[in-house]
């Protein structure tokens, strides 16, 4: 009996000792990392291209989505966004790298005002029946409050719709333009060089609308052939790699959009483009100098009057439909 009691005491003591050891040394908790960009914002390196992150070429005119809020940033507002590597920048600009320089300059600068894009896209789609002088007059009458780079895209509703549809991409593009503009411009030139090397920029289907000038290493300029702009649409997965034997990939272009003197006060006053060697975006021939530090700076257009909106510009699709229905009831 005494032997059994001694044995039980010994077992109980060992058990208590193990219990005490486990309480003093609990299992390690997962390490806590400082907050930073979510994984979706800074993905691991993947083979070029990455389809999920950035907009692809539209098969048809994109439909403007319901108004959406400005997407939350994945980093503190006071800190500079993470510097993106060349591969990710290539993925980011692939769908716009072959835009003509003037239009591309406006897209890059307008992306730095992402909170203005959804409303501007909605206005552009609602007034897509206006062109030329009538559209410029409507912009003046409605006294639109947006940055001049956003106003410059109002004649291009398809471009604004794509930017509004892919708001995360638009914000990331704008942040990169503010924080690492030279790297963004280098990525565009890398892709243009690839497309030119593979012969796509010499394709008659492209050169009938765009003039390509190779001014030296890292300087390929693309401009409209005539006074009208044609927005090129293409598959970024195809036009920056060697063509497959027996496979032909073509460009498609949007409608002709003529930018005349009517839009001189809305970002098209001349001298719009790039100083590629100096990594400069040019407005009126002068460098656009907005950066990450002063990203909150917004220049109000001269003559802008808050709260004055007209929204009456003659013929509109909805009114035409009402008149058609009235004739049917007579």
Short description:
The protein is mainly α. 37% of the residues lie in helices and 9% in strands.
Main sheet attributes: strand count, strand direction, barrel closure:
3 strands, antiparallel
User: Could you report the average pLDDT, rounded to the nearest whole number?
Assistant: 75
The fraction of residues assigned to DSSP E strands is: 5-15%
The count of strands amounts to 9
The topology string of helices and strands comes to HHHHHHHHHHEEEEEEEEEH
Radius of gyration: 28 Å
Low-confidence stretches: 1-53, 56-77, 319-330
Termini separation: 113 Å
Share of residues in helices: 25-40%
> In which order are the strands of the major sheet placed?
7-8-9
Number of DSSP helical runs:
11
Structural class, please?
A: mainly alpha
Q: Rough shape? A: globular
What does the model show?
The chain is 37% helix and 9% strand. It has helices at 2-24, 86-93, 101-110, 117-126, 132-142, 148-151, 157-165, 167-179, 181-197, 204-207, 317-329, and strands at 210-216, 219-224, 228-229, 232-233, 252-253, 257-258, 273-275, 280-283, 286-287. The model is unreliable at 1-53, 56-77 and 319-330 (pLDDT under 50). A three-stranded antiparallel β-sheet has the order 7-8-9. Helix 2 packs across helix 9, helix 4 (117-126) packs antiparallel against helix 7 and helix 8 packs across helix 9. The chain is built from eleven helices and nine strands. A hairpin with a 4-residue loop joins strand 7 (273-275) and strand 8 (280-283). It has 330 residues and is mainly alpha-helical. It has a domain at 94-240 and 263-290.
